[in-house]
Structure formats: structure tokens, C-alpha cells
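Input sequence (508 aa), recorded before submission:
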Amino acid sequence: MLDHVRTHEQYLCFMLPRIKKLFLEKPGQVLFYLDAALKAYVMNLDRGIEILQGCYSKDFGRPAVFDPVDMLRSLVLMVSLQITSVTAWADKLTKSDMLAVLSGFEPGKTPSMSAFYDFWNRLWLEDKRLRKKRTLRLRKKSKKPKNVHKGQKLPNRRPGVVDRLVRSFRKGRFFSTKRPERLLQELFTRVFVQGSRDRDIITVSMILTGDGSPFESCGSPFGIPVCDCRSKGIYKCDCPRRYSDVYANWGYDSSRNEYFWGRNLYTLSCVNGEAELPVFLRFGQGSRHDSVLFAFSVVEAWPLFSQAGLNVSVFIGDSAHDASLLYALLDLYGTKPVIEFKIKPKFPLSLNDQGVPLCPKGFMMYYWGYDKIRNRFKWRCPKTVGPRRYRDRMVCNEPCCDSDYGLTVYTKPDWNRRIFTDIPRGSALWKQLYKRRSVAERVNKRYNDYGLDTARVRENCYWYHLAHLAAMNMHLDAWIAQELERLKLDKKKLLLHFLGVGTATACA
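Predicted structure, C-alpha cell format:
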């Protein structure tokens, strides 16, 4: 049960006098946590109070000992200090009065490790019984994919899965309406993405880019054998095993040209604001293709942005996003695509005035139907399948193709969204926008600045929390940079300005 939630103004009334007193007594300790103090000051979490209150009962149960807003603030500060272990953070709070006060707790009365884990589980909308059942589930031993080329991304395991997903989305079928991470994503959007919009760091009409980033799991890729093959002298078996990280599997990191056992974090980043910031995060298995994660991200993120008063005008993607129906999905949400071709379309034959392709001998090719799935026309050799009265008139002693099927070519209609985009391919505007795609790689690299590359967690719940806490810190960094630019101060003077301490007092 939750009795009362403290607002940001009430938190400042609690924090500022205590930090000012600590600064006058131990200025070195306060300046050591300078960045954390600035983030705690500008971190206004009032928009998230309604979401956090919904995680607690209003009528029955023991009253919560700690304010959920303070719990969230404390975890954000934890990741800002590159600490990803809740156990280590709970121990650090008991030893540092500065960090306890910045979090909103009285020194000596800080949450335990289990209290932080309980807070995380409240934000994770998944039945505990299903989570436990999933950890006990057995599965076959995972093997590394073989069809990988050096320097290229891992191909999709199921060809055509993106088209099938998009068709289902367009029919109103959504497979992720009950996803357990949706409350955390809504909290991040409402508090931090909308907060950056209010500060004019993010524009209302956003230009987004997306890319995946691999994260290795600390779980073993070999699993735990539960069979009795070893007692029979069989040490290499393919029996089902139990895995400590049930969501991890083998993926391929094209930037490092190596395999990894873990997850793929897909991030949508804003490129047309004052700062390069993430606005939506979604995890998938290590082998999950970026195009699949992007299809789910569109139907999940675009409604969230609409609720926050934002819209996506342009999406910039690399060749991994080049799927025919993804263009139609973006068109459904009113977003213009700037996506590089995966394989540039080639058409070696010439066309007549009616748009009919001509074979190398100059004869009109025979129409062989329209492919609705790939949105293209099929044409075949007229000497092979044309009407008999035309075939008899054709003089073609040297066939163009060795196959009995004959030469086959395809043409795209004018309404093909993949080729005829709203922003013309090859235009100056298209090239200028596509250059901004590198923002996605820079944002993904910043996750390592907050220790995600060394995180020792296994469950999806904790990966999602750590990744969102890192994204929250990126927004806070942009807020602080804006304050520094507005007031023309450095970080130390900005903290003194917030504390109301003069320069002479600070020097003394």
C-alpha cells in the first residue's frame, strides 16, 4: 500500500539543505559526486507519479517503507556511476550519506537489495509463476549459425517473417499488447522523452534512426545437462538442457566479426534535436534481425509518441530495414522512409514506350502475371511461352538463356513504395538525411559508458531496467548541458548556484 508520493519540489526541500550542510562540512565528498548531484537536481519525476502509484495497492497491504519516486531516482544515480549491481549499490548507500541524501533517503535508513528488486518486479508486468516456469523449461543445445559472411549482418532465420508480421499488423493483430516491459517504456517516454521535448532538446516532429547493438549474457551458452548420459559414458549429447538465461541465444556481431551469446538491443534515436538521444528501446534474442525488431518497434513506439504529443516525420535505416512491407507500414503511420537498398534492383533490358521489356533480340517479352507478395510484374521469353502464331514468326537461333524455362525478368510498378519513396532516392535531401544514420551507432556506443557491457544479469526484466536507466542518464546529460549553456557556467559553479552557496563561501 502506498500512502503518499513526494513531488520534485518537496524532494528539493528535503535534499538541498542537507547537501548544503555536507558541502560546508565535507566539500570534497560533494564535489566527488558532482555529476550525480546535478542529475538529482534536474531529474523531475512528477510525470511518472501516476504510473508508479499504479504499481501499489491503494486499499490493503503493508504501507511501503520507501517512496517509489525516490527508488527510481536512486537507481538512475546508480547507473550514472557505472554500477549495475543492485547488491553493490545497496551497500554503497549505507556507507555514503551523500548518495543517500541525493536519492531522497535519510542516512542510515536506505533500502536493501531486496527492496530494489521488489521495485523492479513491480514495474515488470509478468506473472511470477510464468517467469519461474520459464527458467525451468528445457530446450535443445543452441548451435552457432553457419550462413554468416564476414562484415555482414546475420541473415533472417525465417525468410518472409517481416512481411507476415506487417500483414498481421495491418489487419489489426498485435502480438505484443501484453508485453511485460510496456510500463517501463511508458514511464521512460512520459518522463524523459517528453521532458526533453518540453526543453526543446527534442522537436515535436522527430526524425528517427534505428539500429541494433549486441550485449553478451553472463549465462553459459552450453547450458546445464539434466540427463543421465554422463553416467552412461556419453559426454557429448544433444539432450535438452536448462539455461540460466532463457532468452539468450547465438548471434553475430558484424562490427567485431565474432559470435556472441546474448541479446540484441534495438534503439530508436532522435537525430534532429539539440542532442542525439534514444527515444525507444526494445530487446530481442541475439539472432533476432533488426528488421523484425523494427517492425515491432513501429507498432509499439508510434502510439506512445502520439500520446506524448510527438510524431515521426522521417525514419532513416540501413539496408537491414529494406523490406517491401516495412515501407507500407511506415506509410500507414505517415512516416517518410530513408532506407538504403539491400540489393540494388538491376534491369539490364530496355523497355518500349508501353513499359514492356524487350529481350536482347528486340522482341517484346511475354507477360506472366503479377506477384502480390513482392509487388512486381513477371515477364518471360516470348520464344518459349508466347503464342504459337508469334513464335513461328520469331527468328532466334541463339537462345538468351540455357534454361528450358527461358529468360525471366521482373519490373516494378510506379506505385512501389520501396523504389518510389516520398523523398526521391539519390536526391540531395535523401543523401543529407542518410548521413545522419550514424547517430544510431553513437547512441548505442554510449550504453557502454554506463557499464551495460559488463553487467552481470540474466533475466529480461533486469536487462530492460538497466538499459532504460542508461537511456534516462543520456537525457539527463542533455538537460545539464542545456543548463550549462544557458547560464554560461561550469559544473561546479552550476552546483553552487543550485545550492545557493556563494563563491567566497566555497573557496573558504
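Checked by second reader. Residues 504-508 have pLDDT under 50 and may be disordered.
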